[in-house]
């Protein structure tokens, strides 16, 4: 993992090294270990705060360096605005930590302590603060050989001062920490270049997760051909690199219980095939496997926290290339389900990968419910921008579960409609359906297409084209092109609905 932080928690008291972050509320109120600094500093603090024009306003801060009488190298007083609230949401602590840590990452400090004691921050919130700091500090510098020392991340240790040490450690170690590990894994996968992450290499990296207790099965092209996965295989036929289907199994629930199933689109690079994309910006298409990265990261989190649920993760891994052997616009393929598809546009390839993966998951594992994630359509960015993923579902109850998981995880989503009236846009005179529905309702017709391969199983499609990869990121927790979107949402969904 490339955040490289060690995380620890302590009973809130003045820190013994590094930088210390102290929340200050409206009117200059300070609590816990932070209050000890202010009391000991006395007039030094009062005069410094006055000189800085600081009264605890949100978004403002000031720093005291090498404060006399303390072992820390700097004290950073960060304004929080309104008075501390006992019912403050975990998100508040997470965002506070992310924003406060950000300016210190290249400061030369190796240790940062965040004082969250004394004002009844819940154990869950304190644990989430550690996650916020980790995500804000995530870097992907793996291939940068000439990065100046003052631009490298110097912070190695994050310490969170809290009121209930035992409960906070439990909340982090048993839930939030492993999920954060999965988010980091997903970010790494999306950020890797396509000459490093291609189907077989990707499958090999997933295989290593067996060390966490996952059972990983890799299906190559011969096996998929015998299963009739011609829709998926057609996408990769123009590539020299063999397509893969990877199945990850975590059976931590009751024996015999039907599993939940999560499925991800893993197009490791998408040129558009014969329907070639414009060259400008095509390099971002290394991220077209963001849905699969979310599933892999989610399964890592599920295994890491030893979830008491049965969960199957499936990712279809292909490379979509133009070649003399490549699939052509106008080709008709027979999917694993037996339904035929006229491929009118080879750049609408993700749904071809997913339709076989979804049918396979549904037929083999008979899941209680199934969610797929995919960077599927540019149309979802037109509709929702980069703030919300689009959710489409054949089941209102499942849609409500996703909305709740979205709120809990802070990975925002918005439900959009499915309707039989959109199906006519997929009609083909030559096959059971075509793979595009035209410019109108592009994200909806993509979801309508997928719905044809899930039967009556409660199912949802989450289009993460706008949230899984970003080139502009106002959220301090999102630091690179790959965001890892979906890992946290999926884990909250599993925890809230499948673990007793």
Care to describe what's here?
This protein has 500 residues and is an alpha/beta fold. It has 2 domains: 6-163, Leucine Aminopeptidase, subunit E, domain 1; 181-498, Zn peptidases (Aminopeptidase, 3-Layer(aba) Sandwich). The protein has helices at 32-41, 43-51, 90-101, 123-136, 165-191, 199-207, 221-227, 230-236, 290-304, 350-365, 379-384, 396-409, 442-451, 487-498; strands spanning 6-11, 19-25, 61-65, 74-81, 111-115, 157-162, 215-219, 244-251, 260-270, 310-320, 331-334, 340-343, 369-374, 389-393, 413-415, 433-434, 459-463. It is elongated. The mean pLDDT is 96.
Identify the notable features of this structure and list them briefly.
14 helices, eight-stranded mixed sheet, six-stranded mixed sheet, alpha/beta, Leucine Aminopeptidase, subunit E, domain 1, Aminopeptidase, single chain, 2 domains, 500 residues
């Amino acid at each position: 993992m490339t955040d490289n932080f060690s995380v620890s928690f302590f009973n809130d008291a003045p820190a013994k090294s590094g930088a210390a972050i102290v929340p200050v509320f409206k009117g200059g109120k300070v609590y816990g270990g932070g209050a000890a600094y202010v009391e000991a500093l006395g007039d030094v603090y009062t005069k410094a705060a006055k000189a800085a024009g600081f009264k605890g306003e949100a978004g403002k801060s000031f720093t005291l360096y090498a404060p006399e009488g303390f072992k820390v190298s700097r004290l950073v007083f960060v304004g929080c605005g309104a008075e501390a609230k006992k019912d403050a949401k975990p998100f508040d602590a997470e965002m506070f930590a992310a924003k406060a840590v950000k300016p210190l990452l290249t400061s030369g400090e190796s240790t940062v302590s965040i004082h969250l004691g004394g004002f009844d921050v819940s154990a869950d919130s304190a644990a989430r603060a550690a996650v916020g700091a980790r995500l804000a500090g995530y870097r992907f510098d793996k291939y940068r050989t000439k990065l100046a020392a003052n631009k490298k991340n110097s912070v190695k240790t994050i310490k969170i001062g809290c009121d209930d040490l035992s409960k906070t450690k439990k909340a982090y170690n048993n839930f939030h920490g492993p999920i954060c590990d999965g988010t980091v894994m997903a970010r790494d996968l999306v950020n890797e270049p396509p000459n490093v992450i291609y189907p077989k290499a990707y499958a090999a990296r997933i295989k290593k997760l067996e060390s966490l207790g996952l059972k990983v099965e890799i299906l190559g092209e011969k096996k998929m051909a015998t299963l009739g996965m011609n829709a998926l295989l057609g996408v990769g036929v123009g590539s020299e690199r063999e397509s893969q289907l990877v199945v990850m199994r975590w059976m931590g629930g009751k024996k015999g219980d039907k599993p939940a199933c999560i499925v991800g689109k893993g197009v490791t690079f998408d040129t558009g095939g014969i329907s070639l994309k414009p060259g400008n910006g095509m390099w971002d298409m290394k991220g077209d496997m963001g849905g699969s990265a979310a599933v892999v990261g989610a399964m890592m989190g599920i295994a890491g926290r030893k979830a008491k649920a049965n969960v199957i993760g499936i990712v279809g891994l292909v490379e979509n290339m133009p070649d003399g052997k490549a699939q052509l616009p106008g080709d008709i393929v027979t999917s694993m389900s037996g339904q035929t598809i006229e491929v009118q546009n080879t750049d609408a390839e993700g749904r071809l990968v997913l339709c076989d993966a979804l049918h396979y998951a549904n037929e083999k594992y008979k899941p209680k419910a199934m969610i797929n994630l995919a960077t599927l359509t540019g149309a979802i960015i037109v509709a929702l921008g980069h703030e919300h993923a689009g959710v489409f579902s054949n089941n209102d109850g499942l849609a409500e579960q996703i909305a709740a998981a979205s709120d809990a995880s802070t990975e925002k989503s918005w439900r959009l409609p499915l309707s039989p009236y959109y199906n006519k846009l997929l009609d083909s005179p030559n096959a059971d359906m075509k793979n595009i529905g035209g410019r109108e309702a592009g994200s909806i017709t993509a979801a309508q297409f997928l719905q044809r391969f899930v039967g009556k199983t409660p199912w949802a499609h989450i289009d993460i084209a706008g949230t899984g990869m970003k080139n502009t990121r106002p959220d301090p927790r999102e630091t690179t092109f790959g965001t890892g979107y979906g890992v946290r949402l999926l884990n909250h969904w599993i925890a809230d609905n499948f673990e007793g």
